[in-house]
Amino acid sequence: MAANGANCEQPQRRTGTKDKLNGKSAELSVRERRQKDKEERLSLVLWRRPVITLHYFVLETLIKLKELTFKLWQRRGIVFLLLVLCTVFYIAYSSEGTHQHYVQYLEKKFLWCVYWVGLGILSSVGLGTGLHTFLLYLGPHIASVTLAAYECGSIDFPEPPYPDEIVCPEDGSLASNISLLTIMSKVRLEACMWGAGTAIGELPPYFMARAARQSGADPEDEDYEEFEEMLEQAKDAQDFVTRAKLGVQHMVQKVGFFGILACASIPNPLFDLAGITCGHFLVPFWTFFGATLIGKAIIKMHIQKLFVIITFSKHIVEQMVSLIGSVPKVGPLLQKPFSQYLEAQRNKLHHAGGRAPAEENWLAWVFEKVVLVMVCYFIISIVNSMAQSYAKRLQQLRHSEEKTK
């Protein structure tokens, strides 16, 4: 009897071992297929396959527009109310009357706010791959206002939206009246709007992760699988970035509102993970967005704004120019264009009531070209991303058809 039992156990063990090997080989084949699909998608870029990339981009855009139209139809009550409000505003905008003064004022403020909110969204959308509009737009804007305040001795130049040039008032006061707080109050609106835009840009990852968790994770989605593996395996990881991301995830998950607020209130390149983490763990929307909005639009923006203002204060700028000149060999070569640029800015600011004569400066020319290159790269990255998204749809459709056969 014992011998028969032993003989029965041996086939069972062999069968179990065989099943495990088959399971491992199937898992490897799935991973190889996913890796192959990923490499195929990443090859869809404009400089390698321009025709098919543009074709997929157009098709993905049409799909997104169709999905947006369907969502708007589901919320047609809210859409109808917004259309009624827009109609009322249009009538008030187009009709003559004493209210036009207030309408024009509100229009300028609204467009100014929309401009900076849009730049903030462009900065944070795409999980860190967006256009870095603080360095390209908001930072230089705060710097120009700071230089103008010290040079004019006043902050009484026109309120936002500014004209093409900041013009000093003719009766400028003494520069001693200028302080950090007065300059901060001058740029508070645009800085806070930009910060609010960065908070809005963190919402798409939150909603995608939340929808995936509520509907059940797709086992064929390698992006979701990578996120799950990172959460499980990062504890044993040795590299700093992975462990830092895990620290952000733990803080957001355990501390809640104040953890999100702490992560959003400092310049934190790892905050991209916070939206995915909050959506994955079903953190309430207003807990996530409220903490993100307060942290980015109020606390973080005041820190960044204060840093730029201090950096471009008059005495610090003069010290910086002198330090540039003290660098051996290349110092005098760099000091001259910087001094010319600052002198041109001073002359332009003193040209009250009109435009200063245009003077060519290679630093301004280089900055314009850098901005142009960054914008072009951002547009190209959007086209590539949309094309790769459509390619992923085709791959998922192909795999589902193979399973049904």
Characterize this entry briefly.
The chain crosses the membrane at residues 77-94, 114-138, 251-267, 273-294, 306-327, 362-383. With 405 residues, the protein is mainly α.
Quickly list its features.
transmembrane helix; 405 residues; globular; mainly alpha
Fold and architecture overview:
It is a single chain. The protein has a domain at 202-311. The model is unreliable at 350-360 (pLDDT under 50). The protein contains 16 helices and no strands. With 405 residues, it is mainly alpha-helical. The protein is globular. The relative contact order is 0.10. This is Vacuole membrane protein 1.
Helical fraction: over 70%
Mean pLDDT: 75
Please mark out the parts with pLDDT under 50 across 5 or more consecutive residues, or reply none: 350-360
Main beta sheet strand tally, sense and closure: none
> How far apart are the first and last residues' alpha carbons, in Å?
47 Å
DSSP, total strands:
0
Q: What general outline do the C-alpha atoms trace?
A: globular
